[in-house]
Design goal:
Layout lengths: L7 H4 L7 H6 L9 E5 L6 E7 L3 E2 L4 E2 L5 H4 L22 H6 L9 H4 L4 H4 L9 E2 L10 E2 L1 H15 L3
Parallel strand pairs: 2-5
Antiparallel strand pairs: 1-2, 2-6, 3-4
Length: 162
């Protein structure tokens, strides 16, 4: 297959992608929008089922994406330069996979052609999350499912099941 026939994520690095290509890599799983706690002694992360107040829990998309870092100062803008340093990123994240030289899994919308394939594959946070506006103590919502779905999906990616 000629290079030009390959999908952009197979022929370009993250830094070579244009804005539309970069943005289309997001599969909409919303796991990066969940609150998490880092253990200062071990560096391990505890995930919660609590999402940023800007996340639309029905669509798993940011309700104010363009201004998110203004409204949520600790919202991290993903960039090719900071991606390797974000230890909390889901191992199934397309940005991370491409950075590591891996291909996108079969459930990624760019591969499947179905914008709902992430949800159908059980990778999405859809149906398992609540907005931070609805909780009084985020620590009461620590859970295992984000890490479990990340591990299972990462194993599928590693096995080459696309």
């Amino acid at each position: 297959m000629a290079d030009q026939e390959l999908p952009f994520w197979k022929r370009k690095t993250l830094t070579q992608m244009n804005r539309d290509e970069w943005e289309s890599l997001c599969d909409g799983c919303a796991k990066c929008c969940l609150h998490k706690f880092e253990d200062p002694d071990t560096g391990k992360f505890a995930f919660t089922s609590v999402a940023c107040h800007l996340l639309d829990t029905e669509t798993c998309r940011c309700s104010n994406y363009q201004e998110r870092t203004f409204h949520v100062p600790d919202c991290v803008e993903l960039l090719p330069t900071n991606l390797p340093h974000l230890a909390w990123m889901p191992k199934t994240c397309a940005y991370l996979l491409i950075h590591e030289g891996k291909d996108l899994p079969d459930w990624h919308p760019l591969v499947s052609g179905d914008p709902d394939s992430v949800r159908k594959a059980g990778i999405s946070a859809y149906g398992r999350i609540i907005s931070e506006q609805a909780v009084s103590n985020i620590e009461d919502h620590i859970c295992d499912w984000p890490a479990d779905t990340i591990k299972k999906a990462a194993a599928r990616v590693k096995r080459g099941n696309r």
